[in-house]
Design a protein that fits this description.
160 residues; alpha+beta; 4-stranded antiparallel beta sheet
Length: 160
């Protein structure tokens, strides 16, 4: 009985079903492989595999060079941005009694390293004066007025 079950019709049926399933899986796998190869060759024949790979290598080389160029450009942009005006502070004040309104001002213009300048404009009834002083690392070698110090502090975000 065991012999007839092993070598019987049921056994042969299941072997045929398993063979059909494996054949179908192989067919699906081959179809997917063929689709991927067509995509790789872009319509060319398999004999041109070396040419296709050479084109891919050239493309990779081109994009590698472009990446280096872009990196160098971004470094240059970073340096330029670091030197641009990034911190601004303005203080208006009245230096003289009897002159109406806060017509005088001090403005600080600083870059990323806190270098730049402070400009002070003093408004009077008879005359106006403008002074400019360099600022290095948030300080100046020249004597700064309280308003100029306040403009620098405001530019650096330390002034309420």
């Amino acid at each position: 009985m065991l012999k007839s079950m092993i070598f019987g019709r049921d056994f042969l049926f299941w072997i045929a079903v398993a063979s059909a399933v494996l054949s179908l899986a192989a067919l699906v796998w081959l179809t997917l492989l063929q689709f991927r190869l067509k995509k790789l060759f872009r319509g060319q024949k398999a004999e041109n595999l070396q040419n296709v790979l050479a084109e891919i290598q050239d493309s990779l080389r081109y994009f590698s060079e472009k990446e280096k160029e872009t990196g160098a450009f971004l470094e240059q942009v970073e340096r330029r941005i670091g030197r641009s005006a990034q911190h601004l502070g303005l203080v208006r004040f009245n230096p003289y009694e009897g002159v109406g309104g806060d017509q005088s001002f001090s403005i600080a213009v600083l870059d990323e390293q806190k270098n730049g300048f402070v400009v002070t404009g003093l408004y009077g009834r008879d005359s106006s004066r403008i002074y400019a002083k360099p600022v290095t690392e948030g300080a100046s070698q020249y004597q700064l007025s309280d308003e100029e110090k306040g403009a620098i502090e405001k530019a650096l975000g330390r002034y309420a």
